[in-house]
Amino acid sequence: MIDFTLNGRACRLPTPAPGTSVLEVLRTSLGQDGTKEGCASGDCGACTIALQGPGHNVSTANACLMPAHQLAGCDLITVEGLADASQAPTLSAVQQALVSTHASQCGFCTPGIAMSLAVLHARHQRQIDQGEVIDARQRDTMIDHALGGNLCRCTGYRPIREAAHRLLQGEFGPACLQDAGDSTAEAHDTAPDDERDTGRFYRPVTLQALLALRAERSDATLIAGGTDLMLEHTQRLRDFPALIDTTQVAALGKIEEGEHAGQAGWWIGAAVSYHQLMPLLREHYPDGAELLTRLGSEQIRHRGTLGGNIGNASPIGDMPPLLITLDAYIQLMSQDNERILKLEDYFLDYKRTQLMPDEIIHSVFLPRPLPNQRLAVHKLSKRRDDDISTLLGVFAWRRDASGRAQHWRVAFGGMAGVPARAPHLEALLTLQALESLTPARLTAQTRQQIEQAVQADFSPLSDVRGSREYRLLAASHLIPRVAQRILNERQTTTSLTPLESLDAYLAQS
Description:
By secondary structure, this protein is α+β, with helices and mostly antiparallel strands. The protein folds into four domains: 2-168, Ubiquitin-like (UB roll) (Roll); 193-245, Uridine Diphospho-n-acetylenolpyruvylglucosamine Reductase, domain 2; 250-367, Uridine Diphospho-n-acetylenolpyruvylglucosamine Reductase, domain 3; 396-502, CO dehydrogenase flavoprotein, C-terminal domain (Enolase-like, domain 1, 2-Layer Sandwich), CATH 3.30.390.50. It is built from 18 helices and 19 strands. Strands 2-1-5-3-4 form a five-stranded mixed sheet. It has a five-stranded antiparallel sheet with strand order 9-10-15-11-12. A hairpin with a 2-residue loop joins strand 13 and strand 14 (352-353). Helix 2 packs across helix 3 (110-129). Mean pLDDT is 90; it is low at 187-197 and 494-509.
């Protein structure tokens, strides 16, 4: 059985099959059909729910991608729980805001939008109560991020955004959710006996137990946030013979300062979510933090993990090119062995890695920034928010005393079967005068040299996101942008905003 609270009431759910999603049990076993299924892939946000675990603030999640077993010990809030049932038919502040601004037409996406705004409202109120001053521009950014994972096909976003602004300005009253980090549900650290007896879903709470399970059940699939793996069930209709949940192992959910290979840095546990990782990147690698704002949506970032993004070995995963460029290492562990590899050596071929059947990804070592190190990240995708990369290029360099760029490291995703370094491009950037690479000074001969270097490094495939020719050309066109950025920084005492280095759709000055 799975024990949790649903809209403030204690709930006990019979143990479902391993791949069963929260959305499935809500709409069937629990009769809560306000939460909708739109895409079953975490893109549309119609299934957005609010979730709060012990010691954590309330957050959004895609119910279609969350395994039902992970509800154990959580508070789950759906659209049915926003208004106070004892005061029916009174609407909650969020619902009243959407009604007052005519922010719904067919209504299919509205429950998910309401949940995203309810969590945003609670977070905004907590920040205000803590004495933070939030201006209109900051509110606008908060709304952008909160609604980035919710699609609406008929209303249009102007009235939805108006509802959000008026809601945060306090026009409709206090937040209907609490964001105090104190779940009312009890934590259940171990899987119930009947789950262990079926041998289909495991929730170990110690590293030793996890490694033992991995050795015993190498046929079982590891799962953390499930934001990619659950697509096997929802899109490909695959049934999992067994799942091993890594989210309860404390050692995998930590970020700790440490050293490796003579470098200071941080050991980041494989089960650390993108949301947890954000403050570290924002402080030390702000361009990397901006990349995270374009990795999925708020719903995805609350649940997706660093280890999962690496472990699924997708050539278009957003984090590996960034980490490879920053010379990161990966720690693999089994019951009998432990080894640490350069992350760039971990990927072998499409969906093939060095991970052995009895191993897990334990952590990733991220070095501290080197003196005068700079970073530029360019993600190209069909839409800005909540979309998979067509290609992703990451550039790191160090400035010498004269401001000249040296010690280049460049990595790309979406350009081969694996994320990889670009050694020919690195050599060209090292030898070529930077001024000759800028858009104003770029000659046909230099452009050809750039294109030849990219072609020497990569042979991309064509797919629905872009052709081979497009990827080669787009990657080549990033070089003048990076060169112009470096020259701009030489000429000003203030650095460019991170978005100028990240967003390939913005024009460089």
